[in-house]
Structure formats: structure tokens, C-alpha cells
Amino acid sequence: MRPRDRISLAIGGAALLGSVLVIGGALRWTQAMVAALIALALVMQVGSRRRLDHASPIVVLLGLAIALTAIQLIPLPAGLLDALDHRGMELRNDGAALAGTAPWQAISLDPAGTLRALALLVTLLGVALLGLRAASSERGRYLVLAAVAVTCGLAAAVTGVHTLLNAERLYGAYRPEHAAPLILGPLLNTNHLGGLMAIGAVLAVGLAFYQRQAVQLRVLWVVIAIGCSATAMASLSRGA
Prior knowledge:
Blueprint: H1 3-21, H2 28-43, H3 57-71, H4 78-84, H5 86-99, H6 111-134, H7 138-164, H8 190-208, H9 215-234
Helix pairs in contact: 1-2, 1-7, 2-6, 3-6, 4-5, 7-8, 7-9, 8-9
């Protein structure tokens, strides 16, 4: 693996850790941080001779989602909007009259939310491209799975420490805006946290059976599987 690829993977790993451990990407600055790291990791791959053999289904689906989301932000004449969504046009006009504003004339009734969703989808596309490039070899696939499992393990550890200390603030600094979750972890929503822990447990069990690795790593995967399983059960998430 070339130094440029190592640096790109390291930056992608930092983005993965940040997306989970930094309040689960709940704040806008954390989302911007993750997007910037992913963009930087992809820039490091510019000029590389490695190419994907064919278009991956996940890239195609994300590209389609990006296109459909972007279409909703295109300014359109009032007559065309009325024909496409008469009820939505009435709601937009009534709201504009009450607020005394001139809203964005597009299909979306929530342009700000749609723009945020577009940014999220573009970031996810970057994650998919980076992951696919890394997974072009057996070692790369192992590193990708290992990075996700370690991130889940760290999230489980953070949740365990906060639970043992009966902490009300995440990292002693951030207090959830709404009611305190059943267990306090990097993902404030216990269903999201439980789902992530279920993924981490399954990945860790699978990695424990991988033969081409040191015994110490097998022990690590077993510990992560136990930690993630315990956290998933403590979350009381039916989905997890």
C-alpha cells in the first residue's frame, strides 16, 4: 500500500471516528468536519491509477438519490409548481403571507432541510467511494471492517463509562437537549446506539474467525463483541 493510500485511509478513519464519537454527528459543525475529512481523503486519491472495475450498486443508488434531491431545489415558475403540487403551493403561499417572506420557489417545501439532506447524501457518496477503493484487496477489506468494529467498540466503552458514572453530560460537556436517554453514549438516540452496537457485535464475531491475524486481535474482537452485545441489550432497543 502506497503512503498516499495510507494517509487517505487514516483520514477516512478519523472521519469514521468523528461521525460516531463526536456526539454522533448531531451538531452541524461535526457534520461539516466529517464531510471535510472525507473530501480530503478523496483528494488524496486524485491521480491514483487504481480504478473500480464497474459501477457499484451503492454508488448508483446514492447518485440517483442525490439527483432526485437536487431536483427538488431547482427554482420553478409558480404555474408549474401549482400544477405539480397544488396543495403544497397553497401552504407555501399562506406561510409566506403570514411571515411576510418570499420563499424559495421549488418543489421542496423545506429547502433548508432538503439542502442539508443533499449535503449528507454527497458525504455518504464520498464514504462509499473511499470504502470501495479501500476494499479492492483482501487486506483493504479487513481494514475497513476492523475500523468499523473498533469504532463500535470505542462507542460501547464510552457508553459503559458514562453509565457507570451516572453521567448526565456527554464527555462532561454536552447535555442532551431533550429527556436524558436510558443510557448515555455517543449516539444520543438509544435506538440508533443499539443498532450500531448490533452491527459492531456481528462484525466483531465475524472478525474473530478470520484466520490470517494475530491471536491478540482475535481476543480484541471477542472483547468488542461482548461489549457491543451488552450495550445493545442495555439500550432496550427492539430493533437492535
